[in-house]
Amino acid sequence: MNAPHDLPPALFLGPEWERLHLLGYFALLSRQGQALADDSVAQLRELQAQVDALRAPGGVWQRALGCMPDTLALDVLACVAAPELEPRVGWVFQQLHGGSSPYASRALIQELLALDATQAHALRGALDRDAPLAHSGWLRCAHDDPYKPLQADARLLARLGGHAPKPAPPPGAEPVPLLADWQDLVLPADRLQLLREFLLWIRERDTVVGRWGGQRVGGPVALFAGPSGTGKTLAASVIASALGWPLFRIDLGRLVSKYVGETEENLNRLFEAAHDRPMVLQFDEADALFAKRGEVKEARDRYANMEVSHLLTRIESHDGPCILTTNLRRQLDAAFLRRIHIVVEFPRPDAAGRSALWKRLLPPRAPRAGDLDTELLAAAVPLTGGQIRNAALHAAYLAAGEGGAPIGLCQVAVGVWRELSKDGRENSRTDIGALAEHLPEELIRG
Fold first, then answer.
1. pLDDT grade for 262, boundaries at 50, 70 and 90
2. Of 140, 161, 182, which residue is a domain's last?
3. Which of 281, 315, 345 is the last residue of a domain?
């Protein structure tokens, strides 16, 4: 049975919920020692035929999940999703649990499906933490208790409901807006290729590990190294956008604590919340936390080294992409560098790159003066991408403040001058090259 692609798949899964509701009714009768009526058995056969149609290749389930799990896995997914999407099923499950929970458990699924010993063993295997069903991210399956409730993950419910899930930020993280695409990156071709290869580590894991038997490793982990403003965070946004996943920046200040043991607890909460979920974690200024472990001179030094070791272990075992950025690659701990799968160096842009950045970062619908030559801007000052963005915006605001005048070399010269002044040193005309003749005299005298 095929469903229109513009409607949520859950609208067409009624036969699944009816079947489970009827199976729950049968289980209640069986516990009371009552026989099943012939018409009810016939109804179950009819529902089973409809369910088989939903599960056929190209059917509703395959459209919703993007793949075709086996029959047992689909039974499990239906059982865990039904209480969320069809309350009648949840009420029956709650009765079968003696009023304790409306969600299915492994024991209840075994009873509903009347599994024999061999099938029950297969069910235990399907719900194992290392089984494909758990790694799919559709099922919360973090325990081995057969009587403990199993719940559908928000990602499964989102797929069935036809909407995108919005995972909450893990502890110590904040969401990064995804406004970037590959066309926004101004990098040498070999660096762009490295970024695409990092994507392969994420996208092709099922092929390499699942089908080909490759060794499962944590992460993957990428290190983006280079000066400030060269596009490291922008590249992380591009990676997350290409995956269709959210990007979360880790605020190290909220994780590191002066109290013994608290840093490790904070890190554990972070990685447990992010484990095997569709999200990208970005650690800014990784050198601040992953720096070379120092010589132990006092107890605090020893404990600081233990914190780093703990974090290295959690990074290595975390099942999800991590991107770490640094301006000081040489200061990173060698033990950490061995755990990195891809290293991308972000260079300062050359003249051609700066010209492309000026063209891209000046507001596209803003009026521009005829003398605004981006090649001249690129040759005048060797700015980074971040500095060009700031200077271009400053120039645009100056032009807007002049009644919406076209952006010209005068406004850009002021924007560049202000950007260079941020480091606190005294600027001179020579610092802005050919733009110096367009800089107002009062700025230089001031």
1. confident
2. 161
3. 345
Helix (H, G, I), strand (E, B) or coil at 261: coil
Same domain, 231 and 253: yes
Instruction: Measure the CA–CA gap between 234 and 349, rounded to whole angstroms.
Output: 14
Cβ atoms of residues 344 and 195 within 8 Å: yes
pLDDT tens digits, 151-201? 888 778 888 887 766 667 787 888 998 778 898 899 999 999 999 999 999
Pair (106, 59) in one structural domain: yes
Amino acid at 221: V
361: left (phi over 0), alpha (psi -120 to 50) or beta: alpha
What CATH number did the domain enclosing 239 receive?
A: 3.40.50.300
- State the DSSP code for 318: -
The answer to whether the peptide bond before residue 132 is cis (omega within 30 degrees of 0) is no
Q: Which residue do the tokens 């066309």 mark?
A: 183
DSSP assigned state of 98: T
Residue range of the domain that includes 72: 9-161
Report the candidate in 3, 7, 160, 135 with the shortest Cα–Cα distance to residue 84. Answer: 160
Instruction: For residue 196, give Cα distances in angstroms to 180, 201, 220, 243.
Output: 15, 9, 13, 11
Question: Do 123 and 212 reside in the same domain of the chain?
Answer: no
Here the tokens at position 146 are 């057969």
pTM exceeding 0.85? no
